[in-house]
Task: structure prediction
Amino acid sequence: MKVRMREGANRILARILIGLVVVVVVLLVGFVALQVSGKHKLNQAKVGGKAPWLPTGEDIVLEDQTPDPELEKVWEDDWIRYNGQIYEYNDSITTFLILGIDKYNAVKEAKNGILGGQSDVMFLAVLNGDAKRVDLIAINRDTICDVDVYNEAGEYLATVPKQITLQHGYGDGKELSCERTMATVSRLFYGLPIHGYASVNISAIPVINDAVGGVEVTLPHDMEWYKKIDGTKSLKAGTKLMLKGEGATYYIQSRDCTEFNSAGMRLERQKQYLEAYAQRAIAACKEDITMPVKLYKAISKYLVTDISIDEVTYLATTLLGYDFSGANIHSLAGETVATESFEEFHLDQQALYDTIIEVFYKPVETQ
Result:
């Protein structure tokens, strides 16, 4: 009888072990399947053409694009000649629009077609599969560009020059607002292909920040106004801060609107924060590969995105092998002009053109 009891216990233990192995295998297969599925989906751009359309004009110093006689038969549609070099659009690139919306609490549909909320944070995240590198292009919220304007009923009225931050407001505060903003950014970048978007309300910042244990930053400039928020006696340039909870929100979202170019200075802090956060996030992901998926679920009520869970899984594992540093964060040059009501940022079109070529194109070996 005792022997039978041992045999029964052993059989139960064996079944449990087999069951655990099966669960692990299923999870691993599922994780790999999510990676493969995510990779396939990300190949398709949501807006833009196969490559930007880079025109010539008074504001752009560009060479004659007529192909050389020797190259005319092999000249590709996405080739351009610039500064004596022929470039082609880098097809290994995947680009995402990242937005931070000035709304608190969970995402909900706007009451009408003009209350979708402004996008105070705007970045293009550029994943270069050839160079195994991530580039970020910071877009000033006050950038003047062609914005599609709608009325409260959601009816299209006109396309007029406005601050780019306003485009998100003309929509439902959810997918429609993001899609319209993505189309506007693509147009600003001469029809740049964009493969997806992620829009996060301000309330998600503490969750995102604290998931990696907080982020340490060094103030790039004086922030005397900040003491009114957290009670700090003095915040001078060079002061080190460990950002946790709502402190991260204040640092990257708040500004002194009475100070000239306050949006530009805030953008500088956002760039600094992103670099510091990326280093913490990479370390956290190496310790726990499932952290991005957990974070995705944790902020889901604050998040609007067309990036699915399988795409997140693929991106999380892929990006661990990519390089990212402050040198990969690009600011678009231009001029800030104060008007009676608000500030305008006017892009330097030549500098924009140079940035597009630097980030999205690669040299062609014509031999």
Observations:
- The chain has nine helices and 15 strands.
